[in-house]
Amino acid sequence: MQATFLKINPADSVVVCLEPKKKGDVIEIDGKTITVNQDTPAGHKVLIKDVAEGENIIKYGYPIGHAMTALKAGDWVNENNLKTNLSGTLEYTYNPVSEPLKIGKENRTFKGYIRKNGDVGIRNEVWIVPTVGCVNGIAERLVKQLQKETNCEGVDNIYAWHHNYGCSQLSEDHENTRKVLRDICLHPNAGAVLVLSLGCENNQPEDFMAMLGDYDKDRIKLLVTQRVDDEMEAGMQMLRQLYDIASKDERTEVPVSKLRVGLKCGGSDGFSGITANPLVGEFSDWLVAQGGTSVLTEVPEMFGAETILMNRCTSEELFNQTVSMVNNFKNYFLSHGEPVGENPSPGNKAGGISTLEDKALGCTQKCGKAPVSGVMEYGDRLQNSGLNLLSAPGNDLVASTALASCGCHLVLFTTGRGTPFGTFVPTMKIATNPDLARRKSNWIDFSAGQLIEGRTMQELVPEFIDKVLAVASGEPAKNEVNDYREISIFKNGVTL
């Protein structure tokens, strides 16, 4: 008989309902019989022991908040009776935990594009990158004209990456914009890039090009539209040259150790931390064991689970960087007069996530158990293989853009509520529950909901690995099929 509830950790004081429970239903757990006191939706929590007012409630083996009033075994635990323990910044102590991955090397490969600098891309696209939002319209016209002329034959696609910035920004915001645009220009999923400038913007074209370093000048070209009589004619001339070069590139077998994957969740529900996130965590561990790279971000969604990540850092230096990353983001919230613990969205709460700790402990399942080998600031580019942490907010578009910008070839995006979007790299959607996978098959690339339909993790992990490697080898993700692709850059300060 298939289970109708799940106790995730032996220390937990709640179980998660795998299907809706009615008032009066019975739960047999730990030798006790618990009667459900209220109708409780699937994905939500039922208390399996009495707790006093102020007492912590445990899930995943950790506190997810405290009871706002005295509660009885069988009560439905939700945002109306559970309150976060989070407040301000904290001091942390490094208590390293070493847990070697017991995963063998498989010598797997995928078909990618080897670039001149030795980097590898999983797409071969022609991109237009505006230095300032003023030229977005020109970029779009150029894309349409090149698509019409070429029908994209010989390349995977042609895109312009619109944004609103590049001028009227100050200090950190301005530098963040420049760094993300630099990272896009240098991304190996682009076979060729036209940098499109207005000319008078704060993001001055020559200074921006200097940020690219020793780039391939045959594949990255600059057009300053104020300096030419006909920007369409000049732009098309450059694009035809770039297209001619990129269209000759071919896929070749490369080791899976070259693959870099971003880890993200959005529209989470009560199943996220028990199906899709653990599945992605298994993949992340497998990839790291093969010599590859995974990146976890969404710093606010680490609050409440941050010590797990801190203690997996391979050095005290990385631990200190992680502490700074977490406390800096808390200070960002507090500096705007916002509470640290106010993160779960209405959709999260409806899906069974009641506090930020509840969300964070499920969110961090995506990075498995690998040690943390690198910590990056927003806009930084990857330097270390293995599991990395990246500073970025929880916002789906901003965080996914940040993952792609640091060098990830694709993003694995788990979701319980569903979302169609994609960033400038393939953005695979992994459903946490079978209902979403069935209803939104045009959005979902893989269903981890099979885990609550009787499939085992041992069965599903190889299938998921095959699916990710297929997408890396050219199979389009659903966001690519739908042509849902965009970028979003983090903004903190004033606009002039």
Task: Put the structure in a nutshell.
This protein has 496 residues and is an alpha/beta fold. It is 29% helix and 20% strand. The relative contact order is 0.14.
- Largest sheet: spatial strand order: 19-20-18-17-21-22-23
Strand content: 15-25%
Instruction: Give the overall silhouette.
Output: globular
Compute the number of structural domains.
3
- Residue stretches low in confidence (pLDDT < 50, at least 5 long) are none
- Please state the CA-atom Rg, rounded to the nearest Å: 24 Å
The structure class reads: alpha/beta
Strands, count: 23
Instruction: Count up the helices.
Output: 13
Give a quick account of the main beta sheet: strands, pairing sense, barrel closure. 7 strands, parallel
**Percent range of helical residues:** 25-40%
Question: Could you describe the 3D structure shown?
Answer:
The protein is an alpha/beta fold and about 500 residues long. The protein has 3 domains: about 5-85, Archaeosine Trna-guanine Transglycosylase, Chain: A, domain 4 (Roll); about 125-250, Ribose 5-phosphate Isomerase B, Chain: A (3-Layer(aba) Sandwich), CATH 3.40.1400; about 255-480. About 30% of the residues lie in helices and about 20% in strands. It has 13 helices and 23 strands. Helix 11 (about 435-440) links the parallel strand 22 and strand 23. Helix 1 crosses helix 4 (about 230-245) and helix 2 crosses helix 10. The radius of gyration is 24 Å and the shape is globular. Keywords: Hydrolase, Lyase. One of its GO terms (molecular function) is hydrolase activity. This is Altronate hydrolase.
